[in-house]
Design goal:
By secondary structure, the protein is mostly helical. The chain has one domain. It is 37% helix and 8% strand. It has a two-stranded antiparallel ribbon. Helix 1 crosses helix 5. The model has no long low-confidence stretch (mean pLDDT 92).
Length: 131
């Protein structure tokens, strides 16, 4: 994608968030049944990684970056689109393997420079038994 598209996405996000008081917006990423295409389409494909879980943050950029990093760190699932791309190994950029036109490092950098959030995050795991 072109830098202009990324800047447009960032501006749209900033526009929506600016309508709320600071600290009053929460972000949730449901990193489950992660398929190569939009889950709004039917039929869809086989999930590409095991379920990661639910991520929650007051910082949308940090929440998205954490989900991206966890997907990258996860092993790809055999039989998925990642196997066709040779991207099953943990640490492989699974998003770029499926969508080579996306420049995720560029997007993360532009978003951080735009001040819409932080690329730094702390993962806190909550045990199902405790939660």
């Amino acid at each position: 994608m072109a830098e202009g598209t990324y800047r447009g996405i960032i501006d749209q996000y900033r526009g929506v968030i600016s309508t709320f008081k600071e600290g009053k917006v929460g972000h949730i990423s449901l990193a489950i049944d992660i398929t190569p295409g939009c889950d709004c389409q039917a039929p869809n494909d086989t999930p590409v990684v095991p379920d990661i879980g639910v991520l929650v943050s007051k910082d949308g950029l940090a929440c998205d970056k954490a989900a991206y990093d966890l997907i990258k760190a996860a092993p790809g699932l055999p039989g998925s689109a990642l196997e066709e791309k040779g991207a099953l190994d943990p640490g492989t950029d699974k998003v770029t393997a499926i969508y080579p036109h996306l420049k995720m490092d560029e997007l993360w950098k532009l978003a951080a420079e735009a001040g819409i959030g932080s690329l730094e995050y702390e993962l806190v795991e909550i045990d199902k038994e405790e939660g």
